[in-house]
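pls design
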C-alpha cells in the first residue's frame, strides 16, 4: 500500500473526483477526512470504515475551514496530505458574469485552496513533511468559450501550487493535477444544460485523443501516487491527465 499511516484531507471528497480520491487513498492505507457541503460524505465515510471521517464544511469560509482542520488534526494526530478538490463550474463570459457569480466561483475554486492550505500546512510543518495537491484543470492551459471565471480560477491554482512548493520546500511539496473531461456529477449536471446532452457528451468524447472521457478513479490513482513517498522528487508542477485533449492543432485532421 502506498499511503499506510498517512493522514489525508480531501475537500469535496463526497463524490466525483473527490469521492474517488477518498476511496483510493483509503484503499492505499491512509486515514481519510472528507470535507464537503454534501451530506453524502457521511455515507461514504461510514462505508469506508474507522479510518474515515466526514466533516461538513463549506471550504470557501475560513471559520469553517479552521474548525474542520482542527478536528481532523485532533482526530488523527496531524496531516500529511491535502487534496484541494472542491470546485464548481459556471457558464458565462466576462461581460455576462455578475460580481456575485465571479466571487462565488473564485471563492469555491480558489480561495478554498488557499484557506485549506493555510490551515493544513502548519501541521505538515510540525511533522516535517507533507503535500498539497490542487485539482486544477486542462482549462489552466487551454479553454473554451463561456467559462471565464472557471478558467481564471483554475489557472490561478497553478500559481498557488508554485508558491506553496517554493515557500515550504524541501519538506512540503505541492503539485497541481489538470484533468481533461471526467465523468462525474459535475459533468452530468453540465450536460443537462443542453437540449441534447448525449450529443454534447459525444463531443466531449471526440475532443480527447483517447476517444473517451476520464474516470474519476484515474485522477485519484494519480493523486495517490503523487501523495506517496515514491513521488518525492515531483513538486511545483502541473500534471495533465487528459487523454490527449488539446494536443492537436484545431482544425487539423489525423487521417
Ligand atoms: N469533471 C471534470 O470534467 C473536471 C475536469 C477538470 C477539473 N475538474 C475539477 O475537479 C474537481 C472535482 O470536480 P467533480 O467533477 O468531481 O465535481 P462534482 O460536482 O462531481 O464534485 C464536487 C464536490 O465538491 C463539493 N463542493 C462544492 N462546493 C463546495 C464547498 N463550498 N465546500 C465543500 N465542498 C464543496 C460538492 O458537494 C461535491 O461533492 C473540481 O475542482 C473541478 O473543477 C473536473
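designed seq:
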Amino acid at each position: 500500500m502506498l499511503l499506510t499511516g498517512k493522514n489525508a484531507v480531501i475537500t469535496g471528497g463526497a463524490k466525483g473526483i473527490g469521492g474517488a480520491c477518498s476511496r483510493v487513498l483509503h484503499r492505499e492505507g491512509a486515514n481519510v477526512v472528507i470535507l464537503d457541503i454534501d451530506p453524502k460524505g457521511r455515507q461514504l465515510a461510514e462505508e469506508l470504515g474507522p479510518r474515515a471521517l466526514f466533516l461538513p464544511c463549506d471550504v470557501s469560509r475560513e471559520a469553517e475551514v479552521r474548525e474542520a482542520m482542527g478536528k481532523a488534526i485532533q482526530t488523527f494526530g496531524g496531516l500529511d496530505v491535502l487534496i484541494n478538490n472542491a470546485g464548481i463550474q459556471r457558464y458565462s463570459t466576462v461581460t455576462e458574469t455578475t460580481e456575485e457569480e465571479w466571487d462565488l466561483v473564485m471563492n469555491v475554486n480558489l480561495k478554498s485552496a488557499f484557506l485549506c492550505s493555510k490551515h493544513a500546512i502548519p501541521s505538515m510543518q510540525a511533522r516535517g513533511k507533507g503535500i498539497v495537491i490542487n485539482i486544477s484543470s486542462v482549462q489552466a492551459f487551454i479553454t473554451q468559450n463561456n467559462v471565464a471565471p472557471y478558467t481564471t480560477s483554475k489557472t490561478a491554482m497553478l500559481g498557488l501550487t508554485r508558491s506553496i512548493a517554493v515557500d515550504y520546500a524541501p519538506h512540503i511539496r505541492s503539485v497541481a493535477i489538470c484533468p481533461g473531461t471526467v465523468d462525474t456529477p459535475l459533468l452530468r449536471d453540465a450536460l443537462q444544460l443542453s437540449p441534447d446532452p448525449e450529443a454534447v457528451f459525444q463531443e466531449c468524447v471526440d475532443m480527447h485523443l483517447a476517444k473517451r472521457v476520464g474516470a474519476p478513479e484515474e485522477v485519484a490513482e494519480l493523486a495517490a501516487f503523487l501523495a506517496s513517498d515514491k513521488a518525492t522528487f515531483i513538486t511545483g508542477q502541473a500534471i495533465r491527465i487528459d487523454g490527449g485533449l488539446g494536443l492537436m492543432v484545431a482544425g487539423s485532421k489525423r487521417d
